[in-house]
Structure formats: C-alpha cells, structure tokens
Specification:
single chain, alpha/beta, Aspartate Aminotransferase, domain 2, seven-stranded mixed beta sheet, 15 helices, 15 strands
C-alpha cells in the first residue's frame, strides 16, 4: 500500500495546488529537487566538468535505475532532453530508402505524426495508418494485414496517447513486428511512471520517454531505450557526436557499442541526477501499486464526471489509462482551464490540431484533459467535480 500522506508531505506543491495535470508535468517530489539543487551547488563551487567527474558513479546510476524500470541493461539506455528528442534520434537511425513505408495508428502523438509527414515530404517515405476499432484502439488485425501487404520498414505506436485515455496493445503489435523482423518504435511518453513497462515483453527496438510527466522528474529530461539488435547493427543517429563515436582516422569514425551512441556529449548533469531520483522513487513504490492507485482515482473522477450535465466522456478502449478526456458543451476550453486555475486546480486542454484524426472522429474541437496520479486524494477529486459542476450550471 502507498503511504499517500507521506508522499504528499514529500511533494512541496501539494499544499498549494490540486494538480490534475500529471500528463503534462507532475509535481516533483523533494527528492528530485534536492538532487538537482545539490549538483548545481557543487558545480558552482567546483566547476562543471569537475563536478561531473566527482559524481560519475551517481551519474552512471541513472542508467542502472532506468534499466531496472524497463527490465533491460544499462547499456540499452541513453539520456535525452525529452521524449520527442528521443523519438527523433531513433527515427533518424532507421535506414530508410525512397518508397519505404511507416505503419502507425490514428491515435499516435502529434509530434510523431508531424515527423513522419516531414519524412514523407523530404524523402518520399510512405505513411500507412491502421484502422481504429469502433470500441477504441488500433485494429491489430488490420495492422497485421498492412504489415504483410506493405512490408513497412518501421512500425510506430504510441503506448498511451496524450489525447485520450487509451492504452494501446503494444505487446501484441511487438510480437507481430518480431515475427516479420520490422523495426518497432514505441512512444512511452505517457506510460513510463504510470503503468508497468517491460521492453522485453513489448519486443520493441526503441522506447522513448520523458521524465516530467508520470515519472515526476525534471523538465528537459528524457530517455531512449535502444535494443541490442540496433546497437549490434551499428545503426546511429543522423548527427552523431563525440559522445557517440570515436574519431579514428581523418575520414573515419567508429560508433560506440551501447545506447549512449544516441546521446550528446554535453549533458545537463543536475537533470540526470534529478531523473535518477525520480525513477528510483517510482521503482521503490512499485509500478503495479502506482497503476492500482491511479485506476482507483480515475474511477472516482470518471464516475463524478458522468453525473454532470452537458459533459461527455471521450475515452475509449478496453484498457484505459490515467488520462481522462471530457467534452463540455457550450463552454470554451480556455475559460474552463483558467476558471479552474483560479481555484488552484490544474488541468489541461487538448485542441483539435493536437489529435486531428481522433478528435474529428469524436466530433470535438477541444477536450478537458484530467490526469490524476497516485499522490492525489479523494478530497481533491471531490473539489474538482464540485468546481466543474458550478462552472457548468
């Protein structure tokens, strides 16, 4: 059982905000703040390079902790600035040729969709989208059919889309990709820290994530999992630097044989150590316990929302996450957001251009996004529902 009182005492923001925007950026715990500030202070009195050398063991602990989170080896982990940065680095190493195709889902994250469109515009890469099921989520049978018909170079799937409370069947799709030897890129931006993630079960070649969301780490920090297959094949990011390669001859270099091939030499060491503290907290609490608590809170929120007039829950799928989207009739998104903020309740708004295909299918221009996390309380849920009821009346 999670000690919610203790966890809230360790979260400086809890006395000031009712924070239901954990899918945007969670309130960080004191452990994360302390790790960041301590290293900044060390850099200030010791020097940046020297501080990094002094704390080399702790810095390497980031890779060990992240490997424990994902069930892999430390050599499979690279530190990045965010999930989109991780995604771009992974995408840039795929050996695409003109006419190659990428298979994805309608619900995939906006930045990923734009990246694929950019590849299509510049290099003639074909984008193929699998159908969505009426009840929500990607149609795995259609994805299998499209794999066999088009033999895509890459399959990409967002584990937990930002714009809906859906959990995609990443493990089932991963098995299909493994059987066909197709590169598989999973966006875990919203799943890491919210639900258990096992990259061995997913069978992905890449898994991307950020720290600021459900992992409760700092902004400007993320990570990339790279499978041994990719490392052994010496696939490398388009702009590799001296972190990722050794300059061996005037016109030759050799990539390093681990995932840090995908890093930049310059790392924000305070954020690396803050990320380590955040991941260690999540692992110590247990992702199964976190998921259980989040499901309980989300059931409370969804039940409260269902009883409100002029509201429609938009989430689909047999397995739903700690992201709740709701349509509220006759109100503007910005007005809802700001009214709640004035009452110290944090939520967020998703607009049509954030999830064009998904929102068009649901016939909405915007949706209120509510994303509880384990440190939220039943009382906070009640205050949120009461505030929305007053706003709607």
């Amino acid at each position: 059982m999670l000690n919610i009182d203790l966890l809230r005492q360790q979260t400086p923001g809890c006395p000031y905000k009712i924070h239901f925007n954990n899918a945007g950026a969670s309130l960080p715990p004191q452990q994360v703040l302390d790790a960041i500030i301590r290293h900044l202070q060390l850099e200030a009195i010791t020097g940046g390079y020297e501080a990094a050398d002094l704390k080399a063991t702790e810095v390497n602990g980031f890779y060990e902790s992240t490997a424990q989170l994902l069930n892999c080896k430390a050599t499979n982990i690279a530190f990045t600035s965010n999930a989109t940065n991780s995604f771009a680095r992974a995408l840039s190493c795929i050996p695409f040729q003109p006419g190659d195709s990428i298979l994805l889902a309608n619900e995939d994250y906006i930045s990923n969709q734009i990246a694929f469109l950019s590849l299509q515009k510049r290099f003639g890469i074909k984008i193929i989208r699998a159908n969505s099921l009426p009840e929500g989520g990607v149609d795995v049978d259609d994805m299998k059919r499209l794999m066999d018909e088009h033999q895509p170079k890459l399959v990409s799937l967002t584990h937990v889309p930002s714009n809906t409370g859906l959990i995609q069947p990443v493990e089932v799709v991963g098995e299909l990709c493994a059987q066909r030897d197709i590169y598989y890129l999973v966006d875990g931006c919203q799943s890491a820290g919210q639900i258990p993630v096992d990259v061995q079960k997913i069978k992905c070649d890449f898994f991307t994530a950020t720290l600021r969301k459900f992992l409760r780490g700092p902004r400007g920090a993320g990570f990339l999992y790279v499978a041994d297959k990719v490392i052994d094949q010496k696939l490398e990011p388009l702009f590799i630097d001296l972190r990722g390669a050794e300059w061996t001859k005037p016109d030759e270099y050799s990539p390093r044989m681990d995932a840090r091939r995908f890093e930049d030499w310059e790392l924000p060491y305070p954020l690396v150590l803050g990320s380590k503290a955040a991941i260690e907290l999540a692992v110590s609490l247990g992702l199964a316990e976190i998921q259980k608590r989040n499901l309980y809170l989300c059931n409370l929120v969804r039940t409260g929302l269902a009883a409100l007039p002029n509201t429609i829950l938009l989430d689909k799928g047999p397995n739903q996450s700690s992201i709740i989207t709701v349509k509220i009739s006759r109100l503007k998104g910005a007005d809802v957001l700001n009214t709640l903020r004035n009452q110290h309740i944090n939520t967020s708004i998703g607009y049509r251009n954030f999830a064009l295909i998904d929102f068009d299918s649901k016939q909405v221009d915007w949706a209120l996004r509510i994303s509880p996390h384990y440190y939220n309380t039943e009382t906070e849920v009640e205050l949120l529902i009461a505030a929305l009821q007053k706003l709607i009346e």
